[in-house]
User: What shape does this take?
Amino acid sequence: MVEADSARPPFYTTLARLPVDFATARTVTGSGWAGASIDGGALIIEGRFEGLISSVTQVHVHRARPGLRGPSIAPLEVAPEGGGTSGTFRGTMTLDPELEAALAAGELYVQVHSSTNPDGAVRGWFFPGP
Assistant: This one.
């Protein structure tokens, strides 16, 4: 797995809290990171999260412009730790030309869902690494 302090992959994001409404603002906690690289026609994603207020339920890749909510387009495998409030995730998704253009435009993001925040606890949009 790519470590947060090692050489960054071609696409990278920092996962941060982003409440979906005022009601969830007090219950959204956590942070993390994700990296992604292209291998042929596949996008390989891996990352880590920590500090959720409740157990992780799922992690997905979503599509939308930065700051906006969008539909889930691919599930990622989750390996919970510490009662589910931290853990790792990884997965591979098919990257067709439309999704590759969305990735290049910064329109793909990772979202970690939790039992307290099923609409998403932390998320981050992929951007090209340095």
User: Anything to note?
Assistant: The first helix runs from residue 97 to 104. Confidence is low (pLDDT under 50) at residues 1-8. The radius of gyration is 14 Å. The chain has one helix and nine strands.
